[in-house]
Design a protein that fits this description.
The chain is of the alpha/beta class. The protein has 12 helices and 10 strands. Helix 6 links the parallel strand 4 and strand 5. The structure holds orotidine-5'-monophosphate.
């Protein structure tokens, strides 16, 4: 899906919500554990209940890798289910990969070709040759970590180097690698006040903004500083939606949580 098509979906659904599928066997309703594939059963129920209110899903790969082969199978089934049942939905593999070029090429093949995701999150630390193999997939998006939502973001990302914070250098340098508009950036919702500066460097690029909900980020603040006339935002929430309830109607309650965010988003879109 191109950035333009994603923007069209956002205006059509009046939502720039991404639901995070951080599916943890210790947190899903216990009655699902007797199912053949509890992770997929949970994801399917969440997707069926929330898809009307969001434009994207972001499985965090760690949650699938942690349970081995079963996790990888559930991940593949989840992406296939999304693409077959809801082809208008955008998919993000939250993998935070990046290695020497030769190895990054294999990561890119895994997430884009084998699993068929529309995008993957990538760590910029190893530089251009570690990111280029992802960017070579010009019909996919590479989502580079810029300024993350966690406390540790202040350890390196905001350090001054040449009178400028490191995360700004990451954005400025990497945007020159992008010939085909297929680069997005991660900026944590907990760092919303930085978005005004970030928009001066990249006025158009899509930003994936996690951290609304469980991490305390504010949707209003994110929109205040980060929204553009083409929206340019995908705001992720995981735990606050998918674990809103552990009762038998967990999916319905997740749907209501997603709808509440969608309503707020529709109000923000009306202001544009
Ligand atoms: O790349 C990410 O998605 C990401 C970057 C970041 O800076 N902060 C962050 O929380 N994330 C991911 O976004 C999700 C946030 O989950 P919740 O805090 O439960 O909404 C998790 O899967 C995180 O790994």
């Amino acid at each position: 899906m191109t950035s333009k098509e994603l923007t069209q979906q956002i205006f059509k659904k009046k939502s720039f919500l991404c639901v995070g599928l951080d599916t943890d066997l210790d947190r899903i309703p216990t009655y699902l554990l007797s199912e053949e594939d509890p992770v997929f059963s949970f994801n399917k129920a969440i997707i069926d209940a929330t898809h009307k209110y969001c434009v994207a899903y972001k499985p965090n790969i760690a949650f699938y890798e942690a349970i081995g082969v079963d996790g990888w199978k559930a991940l593949k089934k989840t992406v296939d289910y999304l693409h077959s049942e809801y082809p208008e939905i955008y998919t993000i593999a939250d993998a935070k990969r990046g290695d020497i070029g030769n190895t990054s090429r294999m990561y890119a093949k895994a997430f884009f070709e084998d699993l068929g995701f529309d995008s993957v999150t990538v760590a910029p630390y190893m530089g251009k040759d570690s990111v280029e193999p992802f960017l070579e997939f010009t019909n996919k998006h590479t989502i580079l970590l810029a300024l993350t939502s966690n406390e540790g973001a202040y350890d390196f990302q905001t350090l001054q180097t040449d009178n400028e914070e490191l995360y700004k250098q990451v954005i400025k340098t990497s945007k020159g690698w992008n010939n085909s508009e297929n680069l997005m950036y991660v900026v944590g919702a907990t760092k919303a006040e930085y978005l005004a500066d970030i928009r001066k460097i990249i006025p158009e690029n899509f930003l994936l903004v996690p951290g609304v909900g469980a991490q305390g980020g504010s949707l209003e603040e994110v929109c205040k500083y980060g929204i553009t006339k083409n929206v340019g935002l995908l705001v992720n929430s995981s735990r606050k939606i998918i674990y809103a309830s552990d009762s038998s109607n967990f999916a319905e309650i997740a749907g209501a949580k997603a709808e509440a965010l969608q309503i707020q988003m529709a109000q923000e879109l009306e202001k544009l």
